[in-house]
């Protein structure tokens, strides 16, 4: 027997054939997301097609992937892909029906159109063809909140919603209804034909699957009208499949919503969370092989990694950890002072590192050591070494491939209980190489690290700090003794001429002369900037930049020496 059935159906056929059953939007699906812009595009596409059509053409509206679900004792059609489209089309049909209901005169045409639209929305009496119970609608959303679900179902049942409602169901329904009224007013001789065109000439390609596995495979390769499916959408569906009872399914749905909220608050994506967690799994399994695509990683052994009983618990813990990192201690992890002030300084620097492999190592360290009483102290030391290694390696070879294998090994070492001991040879010429990275992606992170290495820098620096050019990029030779344009090109972008500064103060300092800037610098909470306000000269010349750069490089190299063992 075939695993899937692909047919071509008109809007009328697709929905009116749902007598005695309904489309189900499962819990694991994403909420309804179509905004007014997408509804406007749909309306414009439909009207353009109708007005340009000669009567025989068909307008293709996309695919819908479904799977029968008989577990509840009654046949339900689960929508695996296309729920955004189906939901919007039903709102459109209900708007047309409401327009017909409100007609001043109900002639045969009005009655005929209502009789064509009604079976698309509701079950109808098989003999009379009339709607006897408007609650028997052809769709049920189990992903929406209870309030949104009630709003959606009420709109389809009664054609009514609050005029000032802000939910997407109401806003889109109001839009479609207003456009129906406007079109009927402006095109009184053709708007009924427009209704028929939508019902008969607008085509959906339903892909009906007998097995959920088949549906999910197709689901993973399709886009829902401009809304790409993410890896985490697939993972959510697979985890949902492992839940056998309604209680388990409900518990998972609630857990997933909580996880989504935590991830959003942490400034992450669910895909990023699963990527971090994949390196936890790799570390536990001693896997240092080449990384593979995220979906392929979790799909291995029939998605066995997603069937582990502690999966959701660990994902939630990992999300809460990264939320604690983002909030810089404003929230405590499981009621504990979990991350030291020094660790937050390192995190700030790492957030500006050119790739995210440091996060994978950090996630592994968290899981291995989160229950340790000494986590607070040991974690800070670990991060200091990790920062030194990553920054040092990027100076040597500014590519992600230079640190990948090491990060894989770090994750394994963490779960084997080995300390992060790194040997490195810092040559006498390293400072020259370091100075040249001022034009690399690492420069912003390096300048921030230098700011935190100032022993007087107690507080965290604002997250949206900027880079101040002490000798400004815009200057006038008449006001800057000892400078010419050739020298400026050479010295302007050197580390010795750059300092991390608050956004507001950077605007205030502007392109002023150094002697003027000093008065602004003294108000800065950043120690490096404040130190400049105490500079003995009101001029800032080439020798000053050279001297400050020498101190900058010595500070960074000294930090590396303190954390990396000599070869």
From TrEMBL:
InterPro entries: GmrSD_C, GmrSD_N. It comes from the Bacteria. Residues 447-553 form the GmrSD restriction endonucleases C-terminal domain. Residues 12-239 form the GmrSD restriction endonucleases N-terminal domain. Transmembrane segments: none annotated. PANTHER family: DUF262 DOMAIN-CONTAINING PROTEIN, SLL5132 PROTEIN. This is DUF262 domain-containing protein. It comes from Planktothrix agardhii (strain NIVA-CYA 126/8). The lineage of its organism: Bacteria, Bacillati, Cyanobacteriota, Cyanophyceae, Oscillatoriophycideae.
């Amino acid at each position: 027997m075939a695993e899937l059935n692909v047919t071509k159906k008109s809007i009328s056929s697709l929905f009116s054939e749902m007598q005695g059953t309904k489309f189900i939007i499962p819990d694991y699906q994403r909420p309804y997301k179509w905004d007014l812009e997408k509804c406007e595009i749909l309306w414009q596409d439909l009207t353009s097609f109708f007005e340009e059509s000669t009567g025989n053409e068909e307008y293709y509206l996309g695919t819908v992937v479904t799977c029968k679900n008989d577990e509840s004792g009654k046949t339900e059609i689960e929508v695996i892909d296309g729920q955004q489209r189906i939901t919007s089309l039903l709102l459109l049909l209900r708007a047309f029906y409401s327009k017909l209901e409100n007609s001043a005169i109900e002639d045969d045409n009005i009655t005929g159109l209502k009789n064509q639209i009604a079976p698309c929305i509701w079950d109808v009496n098989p003999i009379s063809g009339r709607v006897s119970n408007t609650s028997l609608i052809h769709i049920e959303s189990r992903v929406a909140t209870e309030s949104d679900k009630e709003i959606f179902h009420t709109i389809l049942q009664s054609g009514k919603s609050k005029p000032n409602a802000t939910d997407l169901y109401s806003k889109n329904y109001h839009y479609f209804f207003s456009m129906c009224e406007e079109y009927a007013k402006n095109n009184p001789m053709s708007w009924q034909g427009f209704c028929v065109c939508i019902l008969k000439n607008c085509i959906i390609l339903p892909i009906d699957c007998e097995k959920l596995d088949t549906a999910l495979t197709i689901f993973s390769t399709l886009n829902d009208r401009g809304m790409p499916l993410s890896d985490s959408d697939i993972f959510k569906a697979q985890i949902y499949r492992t839940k056998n009872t309604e209680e388990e399914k409900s518990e998972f749905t609630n857990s997933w919503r909580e996880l989504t909220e935590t991830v959003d608050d942490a400034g992450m994506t669910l895909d990023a969370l699963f990527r971090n967690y994949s390196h936890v799994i790799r570390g536990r399994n001693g896997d240092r092989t080449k990384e593979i695509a995220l979906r392929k990683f979790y799909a291995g052994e029939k998605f066995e990694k997603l069937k582990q009983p502690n999966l959701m618990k660990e994902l939630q813990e990992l999300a809460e950890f990264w939320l604690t990192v983002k909030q810089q201690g404003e929230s405590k992890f499981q009621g504990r002072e979990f991350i030291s002030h020094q660790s937050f300084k390192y995190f700030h620097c790492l957030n500006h590192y050119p790739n995210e492999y440091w996060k994978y190592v950090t996630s592994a360290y968290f899981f291995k050591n989160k229950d340790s009483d000494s986590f607070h102290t040991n974690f800070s030391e670990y991060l200091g070494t990790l920062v030194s290694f990553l920054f040092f390696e990027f100076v040597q070879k500014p590519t992600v491939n230079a640190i990948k294998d090491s990060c894989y090994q770090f994750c394994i070492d963490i779960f084997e209980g080995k300390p992060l001991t790194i040997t490195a040879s810092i040559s006498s010429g390293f400072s020259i190489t370091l100075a040249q990275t001022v034009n690399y992606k690492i420069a912003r992170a390096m300048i921030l690290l230098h700011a935190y290495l100032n022993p007087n820098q107690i507080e965290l620096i604002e997250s949206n700090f900027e880079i101040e050019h002490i000798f400004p990029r815009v200057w006038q030779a008449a006001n800057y003794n000892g400078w010419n344009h050739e020298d400026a090109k050479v010295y302007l972008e050197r580390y010795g001429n750059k300092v991390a500064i608050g956004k507001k103060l950077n605007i205030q300092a502007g392109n002023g002369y150094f002697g003027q800037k000093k008065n602004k610098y003294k108000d800065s909470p950043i120690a490096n900037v404040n130190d400049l306000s105490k500079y003995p000269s009101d001029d800032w010349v080439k020798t000053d930049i050279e001297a400050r750069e020498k101190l900058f490089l010595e500070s960074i190299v000294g930090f590396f020496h303190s954390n990396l063992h000599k070869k």
